[in-house]
Amino acid sequence: MKNTFKTTVIAVVALFSVSSCNDALDIIQDGEMPAELAFQTTADLDKYLNGAVYSSLDNTNEIFFSGQFTDELGMGPQNSELQLSAHQFYLDVTNPYASGIWISNYSTINRVNRLLDGAKKVTPASADVSSYNNILAQARVIRAFNYFTLLSYFSTDMKSGTALGVMVFDNIPMVDEVRPRVANSEVFAAIDADIAFAETNLTVGGASYLRVTRNMLNAFKARYYLYRGMYPQAKTAAEAVLSGSGLSLTAATPVPTGLAFGNATSHGGLNALATTNPYKRMWVDTSQGEIIFALSRPTTGAWGNIGTLFNTNQSNSSGSVLYDMGRKTYNLLSAVNGDIRRFAYLDHTSTVNTSYATIPDYRVKDVLIIDKYPGKTNQTTRNDLKVFRLSEIYFILAECAVEEGDFAGAATRIKAVRDARNYLAPVALPVYTSKAQAYTDILLERRKELYLEGHRYLDLKRLGETAGVAIDRDPTDDLKTIPVTIPITDYRMKSLPIPRPETQGNPTIVQNPGY
Fold this sequence. Notes:
19 helices, mainly alpha, 515 residues, globular, 6 strands, two-stranded antiparallel sheet
């Protein structure tokens, strides 16, 4: 059910409509244990939460679609020109990543509903009531987050309660049952109910950033309310993260001396899995850093390897580079002296050619090797998937300040992130004199800081028109003579298409405009 880069196409063909429930989880198979036997104790619920619900959470499709469709990726020298449709702005009902986002989120919702249904058959011992409620609270936050993700991609207007949303399931539907998309307001009501339950029942303790905690709940609320345009609520939730998480922005220092590409001694020390640099340690999973919530990807087991989206087997010049960093993104990271992200996100074996714009064979002579997901010890290219980090909370507070007319406050939040990412010295405080100017700079910093974390498409969808910013791709990122951008008002920037398997299996579904 985890539709990764290599399995999504197969999964989309094999799975029928989620609303029609023809998924292996929805059909009682011969020899399958019924719910009344599977769920008998609180411990059974916890095992299912960990083994079925958490394990099904996956944002790989979101990360890759956003990177490929926008300006985060360029064509690597070993790319065989397969799976290029989204990179060339061809987006239709057969797109495997749109289908993957749809199927993956509904699969997790289905599992949560099975857990909640099974919980009705369990009467916890008095000593287990708190644990029982905490299990349900974690599950309901996960369900709310999945509905929010679906709305973010498939609703044309997250700020409108009357805009068409997605299908809502709060139970286990019958095999032949179909449901229509409902208004956003109805989906919001379901999300709000899950949040309210979690507010009351989520255990205050528990510090693991790989589980749903109060910190994760507040971070989710901050993003959810921000996307809805509920800025006071977003600000309150974001401030709760700052005051209650105990986290601080991860420092850029110390760093190896003489940072340079092609220097295996110095920059290789930053890229190495054993690095002591705090910011890089967060990306090789040897330190939590400022991570609020991440999806665990242990070294053992059949988990997807996020790094193989970009490099076939390792994130260096020997690793068969499928996609490299978008050239304009690299130029932005290089524009500020001392920006640790320039080196942390690229491998030191990259070939950086200053004449990239004029050489005909730039694909092989200007190779910006992505090293944001280098893997962890004993498992190359496999990393935990970071969902919420503290830097995003600063960006959320900056947006809230803009909406309050507090341009100085917004600038202070952006400067805080830039200072944390600079290993040389603090940077100048930006000055904003208009809403459009402020959002342009916020988008710029989000582009650099949240690179390949699945935000860019949604950021442009949310803020691009206000800021006057669209997909900003360099011509060298592409293989063919095609447009390097599309208008920010284009229907493809408003929403993703409802996947063909859903519209074929569910006659009540209304397709999004343009598709």
